[in-house]
TrEMBL record:
Annotated cofactor note: Binds 1 S-adenosyl-L-methionine per subunit. Binds 1 [4Fe-4S] cluster. The cluster is coordinated with 3 cysteines and an exchangeable S-adenosyl-L-methionine.
Family: Belongs to the radical SAM superfamily. 7-carboxy-7-deazaguanine synthase family.
Top-level taxon of origin: Bacteria
Any one Gene Ontology molecular-function term assigned to this protein's record: S-adenosyl-L-methionine binding
The protein's name: 7-carboxy-7-deazaguanine synthase
Gene symbol of the encoding locus: queE
Source species of the chain: Hymenobacter nivis
Cofactor(s) recorded in Swiss-Prot or TrEMBL: S-adenosyl-L-methionine; [4Fe-4S] cluster; Mg(2+)
EC number: 4.3.99.3
Keywords: 4Fe-4S, Iron, Iron-sulfur, Lyase, Magnesium, Metal-binding, Queuosine biosynthesis, S-adenosyl-L-methionine
Length: 218
């Protein structure tokens, strides 16, 4: 760890992720946004540790325990992102809104980055965002005040009942929110045909695929 992180880690008041000055970071990587509205665009991903939602099909369960991941200072994260040509940053997790995203997003925007979030919406909205993707979960309901700020609603389709569930949540977001249906990865072969038929019959929805998994990139 750098001297900055060592110092901050020695200050208990700043050590709790809740302050948002230092955060548990599972991984960070420069890649192509694989999902949703911004799919195909270069972005620096910061995957924060910690999630209390517990989706049975979560594809990054190793993120759930915040204490299992090293702490990093906001300044370090911004410097790491700035080492790459792109100026889009995706804050994901884990559930990023378990943390105060204010310091990180403020520093990123001050450094000229667009800030995008991937969230379940299950915790209060903190931070300054250029794009908010809300992917609601049955395991812990999204907050109405987060849904109200969704630029994108991305429903993961695990079984046939998820189409009606999707419509219930489409009624809770602004009329301008982009609507996506994304097959749950392990059930993609089974659910994608029905998902395609649903979008053809209900064209305000769009198909979202986890293209990074097909491209074999992070
Ligand atoms: C790992 S989650 C982290 C961010 C946040 N906790 C959330 O759920 O939106 C990032 C995105 O991956 C999606 N996702 C997670 N596991 C998936 C799976 N098995 N199949 C398809 N999408 C998945 C989530 O719905 C979310 O849109
Ligand atoms: N390439 C790529 N795109 C993504 N979009 C959302 C992701 C996530 O795990 O939050 C993700 C991811 O893990 N990789
Ligand atoms: S909310 Fe996101 S990170 Fe948490 S379990 Fe569900 S998919 Fe995984
Ligand atoms: Mg992912």
């Amino acid at each position: 760890m750098s001297a900055v992180t060592d110092l901050l880690a020695a200050l208990p008041i700043l050590h709790t992720p809740i302050t948002g000055v230092i955060l548990p970071v599972m991984e960070q990587f420069y890649t192509i946004q694989g999902e949703g509205f911004n799919a195909g665009r270069a972005a620096y991903f910061i995957r924060l540790g910690g999630c209390d939602v517990g989706c049975v099909w979560c594809d990054v369960k190793e993120s759930w325990d915040a204490d299992a991941h090293p702490r990093q200072a906001v300044a370090e994260l911004v410097a790491a992102a700035a080492a790459h040509p792109g100026r889009n940053v995706v804050i994901t997790g884990g559930e990023p809104l378990m943390h105060n995203c204010g310091p990180l997003t403020g520093a990123l925007q001050a450094a000229g980055f667009q800030t995008w979030i991937e969230t379940s919406g299950a915790h209060p909205l903190s931070g300054r965002w250029d794009w908010i993707c809300v992917s609601p979960k049955k395991f812990r309901a999204p907050r109405p005040d987060v849904l109200a700020h969704a630029d994108e609603l991305k429903i993961i389709v695990f079984n046939d009942s998820d189409f009606a569930w999707a419509e219930e949540h489409a009624a809770l977001v602004p009329a301008t929110t982009r609507l996506y249906l994304q097959p749950e990865w392990s059930r993609a072969a089974r659910m994608t045909p029905a998902l395609i038929d649903y979008v053809k019959a209900h064209p305000r929805w769009q198909v979202s695929l986890q293209t990074h998994k097909y491209l074999d990139i992070p």
